[in-house]
Amino acid sequence: MANKTLLKLKQKVIDNLKKSLGEEEKLLIKLTRTAFKKNLSTNMGFGAQDLKSSYLELYTHLLNKYGSKLIIKPTSMDIDKMEILITVKN
Fold first, then answer.
1. Which of 6, 35, 78, 87 is the residue whose CA sits 20 to 30 A from 12?
2. How far is 88 from 70, CA to CA, in rounded Å?
3. pLDDT in tens, 43-86
4. How many domains in the chain?
5. End-to-end CA separation in angstroms for the chain
6. In terms of residue numbers, what domain contains 15?
7. Strand order in the sheet with 70-76
8. C-alpha pair distances (Å), 42 with each of 9, 31, 35, 39, 81
């Protein structure tokens, strides 16, 4: 099950990259509350440790592939509506 989800997530990243060809900063994926575990490790925010397994695998894969070019942008810190954009800089 997790592998199927991971493959779908990777395909979404590929599709997003194709849409943003030529841009300085490319959107890889947008993660919403559904990407995170129900119970977060702290009530002060969230991080990679709070991602569900498939999303954590994707994040690790992107980090290994893009390294310091990877940009993580929280767009909402509200625990119920949290959202982050994962982009890569050219």
1. 78
2. 5
3. 777 889 999 999 999 999 999 999 999 999 999 888 888 899 99
4. 1
5. 33
6. 2-89
7. 25-32, 83-89, 70-76
8. 26, 18, 16, 8, 16
What the block records as the tokens of 64 is: 């290994």
The CATH number covering residue 20 comes to 3.30.1370
- Each residue's pLDDT tens digit, 54-63: 999 999 999 9
| E strands present in 1-90 | 25-32, 70-76, 83-89
Cβ burial 40-76 (10 Å sphere, 16+ → b, else e): eeeeeebeeebbbebbbbbbeebeeebeeebeeeeee
